[in-house]
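Re: that chain you flagged

S.,

Sorry for the slow reply, it's been a week of failed gels. I finally had a moment to sit down with the sequence you sent. For the record, here it is as I used it:
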Amino acid sequence: MTELFASPNTYIQGPGELFKSAGYIEKYGKKVLLLSDPTVLKIVGNDFNDYLQNNGFDVTLAQFEGEASESEINRVTEIGKSNQDQIIIGLGGGKTADSAKAIADNLDIAAMIAPTIASTDAPCSRLSVIYTDDGAFDHYRFYKKNPEIVLLDTKVIAGGPVHLLISGIADALATNVEATDVRAANADNMLGAKQTIVAGAIGQACEDNLFEYADLAIAANKAHVATPALDHVVEANTLLSGLGFESGGLAAAHAIHNGFTALTGDIHHLTHGEKVAYGTLVELILDGSDHARFEKFLKFDLKLGLPTTLADLHLSSASDEDLMKVATQACDENDTMKCMPTDITPEDVFAAIKAVDEYSKDFQNQ
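Prediction finished late last night. Pasting the structure tokens below so you have them in one place:
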């Protein structure tokens, strides 16, 4: 039995670290491909571009067009190829990070991921979630290595939108739930091997820190200040969840998130983490979690304003046929539902989706 654990070469977190990063970057070369979207460029990207140029880097700026699709990845790959860039820096959110990793793989160059929000566990992993140009889940893409550098400037993150930090908390809260079920199933993690002891410990530490520090971290984010509580949650959302999901594995929660891509409509105005939050509650039903554990997660989600009913997902008018489409997509043989401890059918998922909705409504009406 092979156990496997993976991580980025270097993880850096702290206030102002983005503008102290030249020494880390220059180890991989002076020709930089900077990938960032127009909003992030206005907030911090243009200043970072100036910082790099003032420190002797030859920077090629590529504006990210918003979707981690093969066509966007190939477009930016050609830019990097023509300029013979040596390292790509993905500055922005999760789809920017996933695209940067794919481009680095295409070009066989180093990658630095610099999240400007702590909304996703994508930065640390050696995989990307690839979508169609229309935003539907397409496939997971796996790489031979993790990013060389992951850098989180908590001063930048403290100034970001609060609802995106909450979305990251929701995404990270699935980490231990899924890793626990993968371990119970003796299934493979996202590296195609079994969990190490440290992967399980990371998953538990991620969950513990989120329940302990989320409220104080959200308060810090609202005040746009970096505090120890925000540090704990940023690390949980990014490093602990990133290492935890990759080396611990994914199961029902993310498969159900992917199942929601079978539908069109307002659900897709929600963030990745908001949809994963509902998937986590569904997974707790599917794995037979006890009442106390389920309610702990439900109360936490309600306190943070996360979706716990179909109405919250903008699916109040969804038919049973629609929900079966979600359930069927979630059980696709290429997704991670197969990593649950018992065989899960689309009918099981459909029932659990409905049960979460009814339980939450009843709980809130008490």
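What I noticed first: Residues 10-158 form a domain with the Rossmann fold fold (CATH 3.40.50.1970).

Talk soon,
D.
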